[in-house]
């Protein structure tokens, strides 16, 4: 009992010091001190001395011409993310659409490339050809299980995913009888694989390996060249509404867009797959899960704003634009905010 009284007394004394001493209190909450940080003037080096040693280590480039609708009236300083040093595992899944399948991993190509190479080496699938610039790996011809009369080869193609810092891995397979190998092998095509079961086997094994592998274990400077051609780009012209470009075929692009309309702070109302049009509700601020007491006090969730999305094909690419439900153009800033959120949700 005496110990409990002493602990309570210490708590009361500490809290009392907080109120009495204010900012001079050594026990005060310092979690928001970073918000008061300010820039210091550059050190002035005499002209006869070298100033390179005290220059900017991380210079911030000029933003260039930015339309006014991209700029906020106020800027909220983000809090530093916690647990920066904790290792995390990469989220990996197999996606399928219109007869095509690929592995999607939530790590950039520069990290995925060496992990794929390690997987092949550990599973005795030696590499015959590898080109990090194109993200292409061809295995050597190998015999599998009891098929002594058949040799197999796999091609793995790594590409930048639709999302930033993601990688898509497409696998193909071809096989020949040992005594029927052509003298000159034909080029790989996009028509599919000779054996879908073998293709599925390698895809499942690789996906499982990547899922349990440590995403921070390695990275490749060569692999950073993969995916230089992005699949999605948000265009922000100054004199017209912003729009989003998807460098995908219509079916893949529409699947990615409709996925983005059904998560986070966006509610899909209705969609027309034949004309690639969708109506949806957009919450700029995520609704709160209010308690009955909060509702009793008059608090209400923000009302969503309805919009219409249209996808139109232009020169083989898909263009996404945002309208009001009556097909009139929306405000430039509204379109920019909505498209930015959609861009973050694409998959």
How would you characterize the overall build of this protein?
Strand 5 (150-160) and strand 6 (167-177) form a beta hairpin. The N and C termini lie far apart (59 Å). The chain has helices at residues 2-21, 109-122, 196-212, 250-260, 292-296, 332-345, and strands at 92-97, 100-105, 127-131, 136-139, 150-160, 167-177, 232-235, 243-246, 266-272, 277-282, 305-314, 317-323. 19% of the residues are buried. With 347 residues, the chain is α+β, with helices and mostly antiparallel strands. Among the domains are: 92-180 and 187-225, Alpha-D-Glucose-1,6-Bisphosphate, Chain A, domain 4; 232-289 and 299-345, TATA-Binding Protein (2-Layer Sandwich), CATH 3.30.310.170. It is 23% helix and 23% strand. It is built from six helices and twelve strands. The strands form two sheets. A six-stranded antiparallel sheet has the order 1-2-6-5-4-3, with helices on both faces. A six-stranded antiparallel sheet has the order 7-8-12-11-10-9, with helices on one face.
